[in-house]
Amino acid sequence: MEKRVATLPLTHIYALFYNIFVALYVGIEVIIMNKFTLHEFTANIHSFRATACHIVPPIAVKLAKEIGSNIHDFPSLREWRSSAAPLGRDLTKSLQLQWRVPVQGLYGMTETTAVIALTDRGNLTNPSGAVGRLAPNLEAKTVDGELCLKGPNITIGYHNRPEANAATFDAEGYMHTGDIVQVDDEGFIYVVDRMKELIKYNGFQVAPAEIEDHLLHHELIQDAAVVGVNNFSRSTELPLAFVVPLSGSVGHGECSAEEMANIIMEYLAARVSPHKKLRGGIIFVTAIPKSPSGKIMRRQLKDYANGKKESLPELKVLRFGAPVPPL
């Protein structure tokens, strides 16, 4: 029988659907934690012999970066399941390599009753980074890369919000998700990023999640978030990274902030197209602010990067200067 350790807030549709609705319907044992700590989470997996755990990308980062692994500690664990935000291919591979446990992507929204795409439970070798194939009874189309859906599990609209409904639902009845996706020849869906979070650089669209995935693969980076910073002289946005360096890697003898910034920029430049370089620079911080459901507080970070320091009064910036590469 499947057994899960639940650490995500049950006020979020992802945790509510899988750890309450589905678990009760199917008959799955769920161990519910009051709050997440990495030590308690991993201890519960071991103690209760969990077979599967639903996580979000920030937890995946901690599992891949902050803890040593021993496959014999979790002999019962069969898979991780990740949702709520895109889990990049590099991070997926790192997590699988670290724990030797497959990572399955899930994809849904509150407006879709938590389900958009599903993975085949009998096939744990789905493509890295994929969130599965379109769920049964759903119709889909893409408009300029945005996924649009129609089906019985889609909300009929937002209560007393006619403007939001007009912006979300088109004349054919499709709901516009606001997610940019890619679909391969076998029907697997890959979530690139949210439309509203894309950085517009000189006419190019830059997906923060893609850059973050590359950064998180670097051995000296603990965590990262990418936003667009306004450059009024060029009338464009520039990609800027907030980076949490690995403890002791910056300013403690190993390398200076400027040296590490150059290392990161050169590392990224070798892996992405020119318009995706960190032309806005790097800000080293002690932690990336995230919501209770694990999503990066990107709007507040963007406001902070654009001079509105009051948007994140508790953000602790490591007072290092990071060079800004030429435009």
UniProtKB/TrEMBL annotation:
<keyword id="KW-0436">Ligase</keyword>
<keyword id="KW-0812">Transmembrane</keyword>
<protein>
    <submittedName>
        <fullName>Acetyl-CoA synthetase-like protein</fullName>
    </submittedName>
</protein>
<keyword id="KW-0472">Membrane</keyword>
<feature type="transmembrane region" description="Helical">
    <location>
        <begin position="12"/>
        <end position="32"/>
    </location>
</feature>
<keyword id="KW-1133">Transmembrane helix</keyword>
<dbReference type="InterPro" id="IPR000873">
    <property type="entry name" value="AMP-dep_synth/lig_dom"/>
</dbReference>
<feature type="domain" description="AMP-binding enzyme C-terminal">
    <location>
        <begin position="210"/>
        <end position="295"/>
    </location>
</feature>
<comment type="similarity">
    <text>Belongs to the ATP-dependent AMP-binding enzyme family.</text>
</comment>
<feature type="domain" description="AMP-dependent synthetase/ligase">
    <location>
        <begin position="5"/>
        <end position="159"/>
    </location>
</feature>
<dbReference type="GO" id="GO:0016405">
    <property type="term" value="F:CoA-ligase activity"/>
</dbReference>
<dbReference type="Pfam" id="PF13193">
    <property type="entry name" value="AMP-binding_C"/>
</dbReference>
<dbReference type="InterPro" id="IPR042099">
    <property type="entry name" value="ANL_N_sf"/>
</dbReference>
<dbReference type="Pfam" id="PF00501">
    <property type="entry name" value="AMP-binding"/>
</dbReference>
<dbReference type="InterPro" id="IPR045851">
    <property type="entry name" value="AMP-bd_C_sf"/>
</dbReference>
<dbReference type="InterPro" id="IPR025110">
    <property type="entry name" value="AMP-bd_C"/>
</dbReference>
